[in-house]
Amino acid sequence: MACRNLNSSGVDNDFCNDAIGNIEGRDAAKMGLSQEEKDGFTGELRLLRAFHYLRLMDIYGNIPIVTTVGEPVSPETKPRAEVFSFIEKEIKDNIDK
Length: 97
Hints:
The chain has three helices and no strands.
């Protein structure tokens, strides 16, 4: 069973991870999208995931960073500083997409 990674509002980060993986693994033209549109969709999903990680970190402190579906049931928690760095990188890498 994959780590469910629920945040306080019940949003499952695996939904973001699954959507990111599905979109990134497909050809944009076959989906009827330009590469720019495809990149925009994945960028939005990564920003949404970053937002939820920020909420999780604020509520629980040290949390696991799970970026793919199928992670172990009990992934190792990461210190707040590492989680914040992950969130910051996701935002900076995707804000202009």
